[in-house]
């Protein structure tokens, strides 16, 4: 058995590694080596200090992690499965650090790649791929989370410029970003005047539609402030954004996919990455618990020699392998162009839910030592509480699956 096949073999009881291509295994091992070398020795301190290690950004870029699933413009053009595997390995290090890649690539860069003009793509994507420019994605608001259609942020065309007003909350990387993708409501009349209203759309001029804007963070009237005293995702940045008559050129609007389709195309990319990433946190939790239980002596023998401990480890590893098989099937469907919305929701919902349960159960094996930074499960469990909420709560994804089953939309 090769070194590549041996990695993670303790928890790979279903030999999922045998289902991966050489290219996929290469991505896995390259990112895992980075996590082993740069993240694991430092993450407990970063988490304790609530510190995002910006020095990792160039190294992440060098690994090709920013926009790695985007074709062209200096991006990696890797497969969906390769991207998912990379997210699993990054989140085995820490959810907050995986989120950096998700915000940059799946959200900000994907917003431009899927909704932007060719000029916008050429201007922004190459430097975002190299990490020279950091982006953020402003969709969620203080009073508009699961229901983005109720957003209050708006943009008005005034003397050839867009004037944006509103507020966003829980925006990753906003205080260190050079560019923000801001989603705002725009009147059909203003969209027509800007030349981005779809032909054949007969909506009245006073109707408001959601559109995306590329807003440099140095823009006057743009202000970002980090959210402090977090109990989760401490090695990353989540921020508030205020927009007070922030003015950008008329061509700052993203011209394609008006309405909520625009941001949802990006959210689906992020949700897909989460379905893989959460399992990395679960796998790392099992690894820590298994190693600890193998050497922790109680009543003359290691914890692993007790039936209750073996039951915990067996149940958790079976759940992990099932989640990994679902993520792999989802990735294959993504690469084949057959992935459906409800499938993303199924994987994001259940893999995150299962991963939280695994991390919590692993903490019980560690006993009192499990509440320290010396071991990963409780840190993973805390982080996963955020992962469970963002990019769609359990309730939202449950209703997406429920709608697929019943044909009835029960969101309100």
TrEMBL record:
This is glutaryl-CoA dehydrogenase (ETF). Residues 21-132 form the Acyl-CoA dehydrogenase/oxidase N-terminal domain. It comes from Enteractinococcus coprophilus. Pathway: Amino-acid metabolism; tryptophan metabolism; Amino-acid metabolism; lysine degradation. GO terms for molecular function: fatty-acyl-CoA binding; flavin adenine dinucleotide binding; glutaryl-CoA dehydrogenase activity. SUPFAM superfamilies: Acyl-CoA dehydrogenase C-terminal domain-like, Acyl-CoA dehydrogenase NM domain-like. The keyword Transit peptide applies. Residues 266-405 form the Acyl-CoA dehydrogenase/oxidase C-terminal domain. The keyword Transit peptide applies. Belongs to the acyl-CoA dehydrogenase family. Residues 136-245 form the Acyl-CoA oxidase/dehydrogenase middle domain. It catalyses: glutaryl-CoA + oxidized [electron-transfer flavoprotein] + 2 H(+) = (2E)-butenoyl-CoA + reduced [electron-transfer flavoprotein] + CO2. InterPro entries: Acyl-CoA_DH_CS (IPR006089), Acyl-CoA_Oxase/DH_mid-dom (IPR006091), Acyl-CoA_Oxase/DH_mid-dom_sf (IPR046373), AcylCo_DH-like_C (IPR036250), AcylCo_DH/oxidase_C (IPR009075), AcylCoA_DH/ox_N (IPR013786), AcylCoA_DH/ox_N_sf (IPR037069), AcylCoA_DH/oxidase_NM_dom_sf (IPR009100). Keywords: FAD, Flavoprotein, Oxidoreductase, Transit peptide. The lineage of its organism: Bacteria, Bacillati, Actinomycetota, Actinomycetes, Micrococcales. Its EC number is 1.3.8.6. Its cofactor is FAD.
């Amino acid at each position: 058995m090769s070194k590549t096949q041996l990695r993670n073999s303790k928890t790979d009881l279903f030999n999922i590694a045998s289902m991966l291509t050489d290219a996929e295994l290469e991505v896995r091992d390259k990112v895992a080596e980075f996590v082993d070398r740069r993240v694991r020795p430092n993450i407990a301190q970063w988490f304790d200090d609530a510190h995002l290690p910006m020095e990792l950004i160039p190294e992440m870029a060098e690994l090709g992690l920013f926009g790695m699933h985007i074709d062209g413009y200096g991006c990696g053009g890797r497969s969906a499965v390769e991207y998912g595997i990379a997210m699993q390995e990054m989140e085995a290090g820490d959810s907050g650090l995986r989120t950096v890649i998700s915000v940059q690539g799946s959200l900000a860069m994907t917003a431009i790649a899927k909704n932007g003009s060719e000029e916008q793509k050429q201007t922004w994507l190459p430097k975002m791929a190299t990490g020279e420019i950091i982006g953020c994605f402003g969709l969620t608001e203080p009073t508009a989370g699961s229901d983005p259609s109720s957003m209050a942020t708006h943009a008005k065309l005034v003397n050839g410029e867009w004037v944006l007003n509103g507020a966003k909350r829980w925006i990753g990387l906003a205080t260190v970003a050079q560019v923000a993708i801001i989603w705002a409501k725009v009147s059909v009349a203003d969209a027509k005047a800007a030349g981005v209203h779809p032909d054949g759309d007969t909506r009245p001029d006073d109707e408001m539609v959601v559109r995306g804007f590329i807003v440099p963070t140095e823009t006057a009237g743009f202000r970002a402030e980090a959210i402090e005293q977090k109990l989760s995702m401490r090695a990353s940045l989540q921020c508030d954004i205020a927009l007070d008559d922030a003015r950008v050129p008329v061509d700052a609007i993203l011209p394609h996919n008006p309405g909520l389709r625009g941001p949802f195309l990006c959210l689906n990319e992020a949700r897909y990455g989460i379905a893989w990433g959460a399992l990395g946190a679960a796998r790392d939790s099992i690894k820590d618990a298994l190693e600890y239980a193998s050497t922790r002596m109680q009543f003359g023998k290691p914890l692993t020699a007790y039936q209750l401990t073996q039951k915990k480890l067996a149940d958790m590893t079976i759940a992990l392998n099932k989640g990994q098989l679902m993520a792999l099937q989802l990735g294959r469907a993504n690469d084949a162009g057959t992935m459906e919305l409800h499938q993303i929701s199924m994987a994001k919902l259940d893999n995150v839910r299962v991963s939280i349960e695994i991390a919590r159960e692993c903490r019980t094996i560690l006993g009192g030592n499990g509440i320290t930074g010396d071991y990963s499960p409780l840190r993973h469990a805390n982080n996963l509480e955020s992962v469970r909420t963002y990019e769609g709560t359990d309730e939202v994804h449950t209703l997406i699956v429920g709608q697929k089953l019943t044909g009835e939309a029960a969101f309100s």
